[in-house]
């Protein structure tokens, strides 16, 4: 990294106009959470909870869930933490294999959670348990929940209902709950989603896959992968414009922002918060600093 001799700013990058560019970390392991802490990520923008579940071959007990969620909020001590509900199916397969011809278009994410209410409720309880415990023992911190693979509003509303009902049972203030925009249809109902979503997180890996009908796991088609394409940028522009009109926070999640040309496009479109794997955050910060806010 040719910027590596420069000092890396610890916090967000302040642009000359006063805006901040914020980098969060995507976390798929406890090690990732350590790295996020060590490299001063401004938050954890995504905990892929399903990875932990899949590592236990689908035999991940309630107590074990609680323990891992607790570990993550303790290891990473600084900013917000976003726990995504299990996004199982498609490329994130479980051993309770369901045979499907088109798993990417099949029983995955929110669909699976709604199809297995006990499974959903167990995770909601485990997350709320850790959130409640944290609130009792620490200064306020935004620890919240993100719902994956939403294609239309009623799916999100039904899952949010489950979270709210459980909060009533536990006499707990409802944490923020966000929607992943990763299926193109969801982009066309952002107004309705925003009536009950606290923020949007754009799952660019999947949004790209479903927008271009391009399997993210198939190396034969990966050479067609150009996120800098006009069509995709127009879709992202639609999203950022809608979030500004609706006055709702949005973050870009996924590896797209690690491509520097793309990161420039995204910043120029108006995106300010990016969640990427923690190992690249310092390099990206130095890049943004150099491009947008050079130190005199
Ligand atoms: C995405 O889809 O862009 C995303 C961040 O989630 P995942 O890669 O886990 O599907
Ligand atoms: Mg995704």
TrEMBL record:
Q: What is this protein called?
A: Phosphoenolpyruvate-protein phosphotransferase
Q: Which family does the similarity line name?
A: Belongs to the PEP-utilizing enzyme family.
Tell me the first and last residues of the signal peptide: none
Section of the entire sequence shown: 425 to 720 of 720
Task: Tell me the compartments it is located in.
Answer: Cytoplasm
Q: Which domain of life is it from?
A: Bacteria
Record field: compositional bias (Basic and acidic residues): 1-8
**Described function:** General (non sugar-specific) component of the phosphoenolpyruvate-dependent sugar phosphotransferase system (sugar PTS). This major carbohydrate active-transport system catalyzes the phosphorylation of incoming sugar substrates concomitantly with their translocation across the cell membrane. Enzyme I transfers the phosphoryl group from phosphoenolpyruvate (PEP) to the phosphoryl carrier protein (HPr).
Q: Which organism is it from?
A: Desulfurispirillum indicum (strain ATCC BAA-1389 / DSM 22839 / S5)
